[in-house]
Input
Amino acid sequence: MTDRQPRPLPHVRYLLLHAYGRGGTIRTVMNQANSLVAAGWSVEIVTAVRRRDDIQFPLDDRVKVSTVVDMREGAYTPPSGLVARWRDRKRGDLLEAPARYIPKGEFGYRYFNRYVEDRLIAYMRSLTSGILVTTRPALNFLSAEHATGGVVRIAQEHMNLGTHKRDVQQRIQETYPRFATVAVLTERDRDEYAELLPGTRVIRIPNAVHSLDQVPADPTSKIAVAAGRLFPQKGFDMLIPAWAKLVETYPDWQLRIYGSGEKKSELRNLIEEHHLYNHVFLMGHTDRLDDELAKASFYVLSSRFEGLPMVMIEAMSHALPVVSFDCPTGPSDVLTHGVDGLLVAPEDPDALADAMAKLMADEVLRADMGVAAVLTAASYGPDAVHHRWESLFTSLHEQRHGATAAAVATKGTHA
Amino acid sequence: MRGKPHAEITEVWPRDGHIRLVGRIHGHPADGVWRLVLTRRARAGRRLSYAAEVKGDRFESALPVADLAAADYAPVEEWDIHLTDGEVELRAGKHLDDVRGKKKIFVYPEQRIGNLSVRPYYTIKDNLSLECRTGGTA
Output
């Protein structure tokens, strides 16, 4: 064992549904790839489909990007020749046909079809070495069944188990035991997935914030901030009535909600109904969320559910304390009630209002909790998180290749 | 803009048939008697004027929405808002905060009187005006 040479680092592939999109998963995978490539790893981001010309987040030039199915207009030229034309017609049929391996309850179901599925399966079968990290249930299911040529497989889960539809939970139970490791975001997820998948290695690796080097907020500011898509999941329809209870006692405070989405006019109506148009503002999307977070003196999370709320952790990196519903999952994983924030009963606007009032009334409390929040956020920094991935990859790679060496060594001792 | 004298709006309350405005007189001595003045953009001669209560540099004033009705309206009419002490006219607006793109962020409810709909709004220059629509919604 002692004379073993250090092995070269394995090639790491992250498979995303759409690497050219703008979602939170995409952003965190790019952060991971940047950190790993900077640490000397060979990293590739593979996108199942491509619908845009450019990547939307900062990505190190050394990270290779490749595409399985290019869906951009003009990317596909119909071939000439009889056989080729027949194949082309078949491709058209397959693009219309529903996927076979993806349950309908997968939130990304509509992005899949027989063609995309076949091409992904062919791609996965071609992999014989290195590490493949798949990043959502649909891709995990395909990897579990088809990436069987020798690549070490890791399934990433960004959602808590209870949020998945029944058919997806069923497939998770059937297929995830085939992975070398299932990586989840929170402790609660770790417990729940481990219980569903006895014998499968389930580990918690949180997502990382993009930076810890942030401008601290000013605790004297009378601005509370919330951010997220204007969508039922984020619970802004509970936050607005909660603020209505505070406006008389704290008329010089304002609540700023960042984000855009399909529920904007409903939320606007709610603001008008409660006469909050001088105190609660729908700020729209911003490209400078860091700057906007730094203007507030606390952050509110009113979600009905979360995976791991990254914007909340980003807010904490600006020394903002947090008032949050104790919803599944994430807030209770990150926050210590009374230390770096206040956790209240989920979906209870009165409790949310009381907790906000407590912070609004007490500048010293905001300042103290803000300092604690920075310390909490530190364990979600890029460095803290990428070391966890490195040691996972290294240990799985050693296990795969070391197994033979170890077996030989063991035999040797007994001979 | 920041240094220029103006009437900085802090609150707009379109409620119960009135529009109440609260703000601060900025960049100009606040003593004297002040009035809120509305000028119809399409007919500069048409003016409405209301008493304003001033304490220190804080002002407050209100107008009944019904006063904005007129027989000769185009489908959309705008009124611009000023504060005056008889000598200067200070434009009402919001220039002292950090928010960019106020027109879309500070949005106020519409009030209806008969077939007239009135909604206060910030112009692209962050000044406060009133939009009046006859027939449709503002």
In short: Chain B has one domain: 6-134. Chain B has one helix and eleven strands.
